[in-house]
């Protein structure tokens, strides 16, 4: 598998701003008409011991349609990286992380008319897929600082199946929400969340790759 290192927040090389043709006029000292923009803090943190091999990011309006777009983006990226066997798991985890971010900061409906859409510009979330030397990471940033709260994990000393005291756990198992993070935990090697250097927070899931 050949993967070229392409940093996610690539800077344009200074040479990109040089004129391609020499100027007809004798060169006058260049005035900077635009002040350099202050360096923005990154959305995601990096592990300096595990450098990137490749990285692709996608900004998404926090609308319900974003989950399907995120799934397709993940599947295409996994194919590009030759990680086909992980595609279904990564696409599902990506979809769960993006859906959670939308529920937290976005809207569950698309405004019906232009004026409403104009008045309610949805917040933007960022999905980043990163292939490092050791891992594949799926990272979702949203502007809310509130961290995810997993449903109560199943405790090993909880009542056995069939025990009447287990009735509440059985109901919990049937619940139609609160399953996303459990699913992520079962499909990925690990997941975590942390406050982002840029504000908001990142929720990430990763797969340790065989080396
Ligand atoms: N990005 C997020 N920002 C803030 N809170 C979050 C975020 N993701 C998850 N949570 C919190 O963690 C809880 C558990 O998330 P989880 O995905 O397991 O369940 P759910 O989204 O409530 O339901 P389901 O995924 O089964 O439809 C959520 O109800 C929510 O309160
Ligand atoms: Mg969820």
TrEMBL record:
Highest taxon of source: Bacteria
GO molecular function: ATP binding
Segments of this protein annotated with the region Disordered: 1-52, 145-166
Entry-linked CDD domains: HATPase_RsbW-like (cd16936)
Biased composition, class Low complexity, residue ranges: 9-31
Gene3D superfamilies (UniProt xref): Histidine kinase-like ATPase, C-terminal domain
Pfam families reported for this sequence: HATPase_c_2 (PF13581)
Identification of the protein by name: ATP-binding protein
